[in-house]
Write a structure and sequence with these properties.
Layout: E1 2-5, E2 11-14, H1 17-24, E3 29-32, E4 44-47, H2 53-63
Antiparallel strand pairs: 1-2, 3-4
């Protein structure tokens, strides 16, 4: 993985296939703020993957120790 914080404040994460396979296996990518010079008050960044939004929620909830509020399926917007 390529990790960088640009002079304009942008955080850049370049992930490779190995990282994607890690995510698909249910293992979050865990980045410490100090690895890129800080996130201005944020101590870490978790990146998770799921085939559906519910699966993304489940991965995040697991990574956060089950601390998220219950999942609510978002309603689709109508185009009218």
């Amino acid at each position: 993985m390529i990790k960088a914080k640009l002079s304009n404040g942008a955080l850049v994460l370049g992930i490779e296939e190995r990282n994607v396979e890690h995510l698909k296996a249910g293992h979050p990518l865990h980045l410490l703020a100090e690895e890129v010079g800080g996130f201005a008050g944020v101590t870490q960044l978790l990146i998770v993957y799921g085939e559906t939004l519910k699966k993304v929620y489940d991965e995040l909830n697991d990574a956060c120790g089950g601390q998220l509020p219950p999942f609510v399926e978002p309603q689709r917007r109508s185009d009218s």
